[in-house]
Amino acid sequence: MLPEPVATRTSFGRYEIVHPLATGGMGTVYLGRMRAARGVSLTVAIKRINAALAGDPRVVGMFVDEARITSLVRHPNVVQTLDVVEEAGELLLVMEYVHGVSLQRLLMAARERGEPLPLDVTARIASDVLYGLHAAHEATNEQGKSLEIVHRDVSPQNILIGVDGIARVADFGIARAANRVETTQLGEIKGKLRYIAPEQFGREAVDRRADIYGVGLLMWEMITGSAMRRASSPGGLTSAILAPRVEPPSSWVRDVPPVLDDIVVRALANDPRDRFPFASQMAAALEAAMATAPYAKVAELVRELGHAEITERKALLERAAALEPISTPAISTSAFPAGPASVPPPLSPAVMPAAAPSSPAVVIRPSAPSGDSPAPEAAKPAARWKSPAIALAVGALALLALTFTIRRPAPPPITAASSEPPPLTSLASPEPAPPPPVEPTASAPAAAPPEAASPAAAHASHWHLRKPPRTLPRRPGKPDCSIPYVVDRNGIRVPRPECM
Q1: Given 65, 128, 153, 171, the catalytic residue
Q2: Residues of CATH 1.10.510.10 domain(s) within the chain?
Q3: Could you point out which of 36, 197, 388, 419 has its C-alpha 20 to 30 Å from the C-alpha of 498?
Q4: Are strands 41-49 and 27-35 parallel, antiparallel or unpaired?
Q5: Is 153 a catalytic residue?
Q6: What pLDDT, in 10s, does the model give residues 367-400?
Q7: How would CATH label the architecture of 11-182+189-322?
Q8: What are the residues facing 19 on neighbouring strands?
């Protein structure tokens, strides 16, 4: 079951504390929500220093060290640090939320059922933990220098297994690293006594092989269903830790393959030099010794054994989401109050709708009370749409007429020799007048009889309505332009350059 809720400050900037998940010696981990822009929110885990230790500079330094270390380790089998928040004199560590249970809860549920975890599930969980630890051991800073991280607290409480079946390493609060501000004092023991390596008692340096020893203890417990060190007093636990001989899991449980026995016993060697040198090497040996369970099988076991806690967490998540709904603000007509400021600019005639200008989709008016006539001000916005529309329409027509007038060639002048108006060149003229003979030139071929012109040729005479003619310089003198065109051999009327 989850811890009982406590009366505490619940809001820190954009983060909201929902409910405590687990409590340790240094801090408490809470289920939390991160509020982002436009109603988006994210479920997170928030680690908070216990109130009794919040003023201890050494504890605060360890807290900051944990944030610094985990921010540099990026791996699917390591719980990620997302943010560090300092507000109202408190320091918060915002981490990835893993929806699932801890390995400790899984082992307790299996023990209550009276049987250990399946061997292939044990191999899969141990392999995930080893790969996550190897990523921490190999982590470097921004300059590429090794951080020399050692977790030093590999225990069932710090292994989280999600409903996706993936195991993740958590809580680097007491991890040793090259860039830590807080260092371990001489004779100080870091870690849970039941799960520490023998060298953590002595003065020799602790390296990554101490974490490999911790994984060996986890495997022994997952295979047998009980902890390897069962003494009730610190003295008894110390004697068990320093004992040179380790019993293989097969001495407690039948049907354990000898190769699996060898891997566990090698990981639990008292001398670090007899263990696997790298966590990845132990993972490779484990995967070569037996087939590990698929993640789907691990996920099914997590849902089965952790059903009560997962259901309770799901209810908490739904309750938090109900208090903080995720929604996208929609644009509604109520966002535009009626009045002159809400009227959009007039549309051009090309895109202006043919509907009445007072359409509700364009202008929003407050509804009048029943039995009352609408206020005079309510009709003003519609009137403002009508006058610009008419003005724009009239202006467009005038501009079109002006363009047509400019592009149309000037009519031929009326001379005294001929009082008759010049023949029309439109398609409506049934019998155009025969043109006078024109001397053939290079640019104007001999004219054809007018009756040879086809309807297509007559239509082509209006080419100047589609494309403006090229302006040519006028020749000296005043030519006779009573007929300002010639007809070429194809029956097409070509304007005379001197009459342009």
Answers
A1: 153
A2: 11-182+189-322
A3: 419
A4: antiparallel
A5: yes
A6: 444 444 444 444 444 444 445 667 677 777 777 7
A7: Orthogonal Bundle (1.10)
A8: 31
